[in-house]
């Protein structure tokens, strides 16, 4: 039985993850981490990582960028693998994650669903094949999402940009007048409304033709399923930053 320390335990994703773990035969919740202490039937949620004494085999983090330092020190202190699903990280945060992965195995992804990671892989291919087509990215999420654009939109931008020798630049929204569109700009547009679980579209627009690829998350479960798969995969790894594509068997 794999003992999971759930970070972000009282959040929307934390609750979905805990519910899936309770129905699983392979996993159990050892403890939770969140902003407030809370005693649940089968485990305790702590707001202070120093109070967490329960033995855990892996940490799965669906909290926020604000708890990154706590989560990294928890993984390093307990010397256990870490699945980072929180989004909104900047380059300094990503550097901290890379540094910590020298000591413990870490997988960090803005999206743990299979469908999105296949979409990221295909978007890179489309960007290469449709050279000269202009690219726009649209993402839509629920009205409680704090960060914009989504981590997934950033993954999609990185993929299409890599295929264009990193010559592309992000443009967040548009307003006012402009004589012409810079061919290397990628408009990234974020919708926030209702209870949308996570929709993404990449549009490749050429002269008189458009190619697009999209993903629609019908539940939050798809992210928790991917995170649990990642947790199982990194359990026996020594250390290192493991690519989600390796875990989901996507591409070379
Ligand atoms: N990679 C992926 O596949 C996916 C990633 N995500 C990401 O996961 C994160 C959580 O999403 P969601 O569950 O919807 O968000 P919620 O706001 O519903 O939950 C966030 C949780 O983290 C806790 N938290 C926030 N800041 C801290 C902190 N500094 N220390 C301790 N606990 C903290 C919150 O506590 P409290 O409730 O007290 O505020 C809450 O329990 C987001 O970054 C989101 O983008 C979401 C879905 C899929
Ligand atoms: O906040 C969410 O809900 C989600 N966030 C992730 C992101 O920022 O891409 C993944 C998914 O789209 C749901």
Describe the structure in your own words.
It is a single chain. With 252 residues, the chain is an alpha/beta fold. Helix content is 31%, strand content 26%. The chain is built from 7 helices and 13 strands. It has helices at 12-22, 68-78, 91-100, 114-129, 151-162, 221-234, 244-247, and strands spanning 2-7, 27-33, 38-39, 44-46, 58-61, 82-84, 105-108, 134-141, 169-172, 185-192, 199-205, 210-216, 240-241. It has an 8-stranded mixed beta sheet with strand order 3-4-2-1-5-6-7-13, with helices on both faces. A 5-stranded mixed beta sheet has the order 9-10-8-11-12, covered by helices on one side. β11 (199-205) and β12 (210-216) form a beta hairpin. α2 packs parallel to α3 (91-100). The chain is elongated and about 60 Å long. Bound molecules: NADPH dihydro-nicotinamide-adenine-dinucleotide phosphate and the ligand O=C(O)C1=N[C@H](C(=O)O)C[C@H](O)C1. Pathway: Amino-acid biosynthesis; L-lysine biosynthesis via DAP pathway; (S)-tetrahydrodipicolinate from L-aspartate: step 4/4. Catalyzes the conversion of 4-hydroxy-tetrahydrodipicolinate (HTPA) to tetrahydrodipicolinate. It holds the Pfam family DapB_N. InterPro entries: DapB_C, DapB_N, DapB_N_CS, DHDPR_bac, NAD(P)-bd_dom_sf. Belongs to the DapB family.
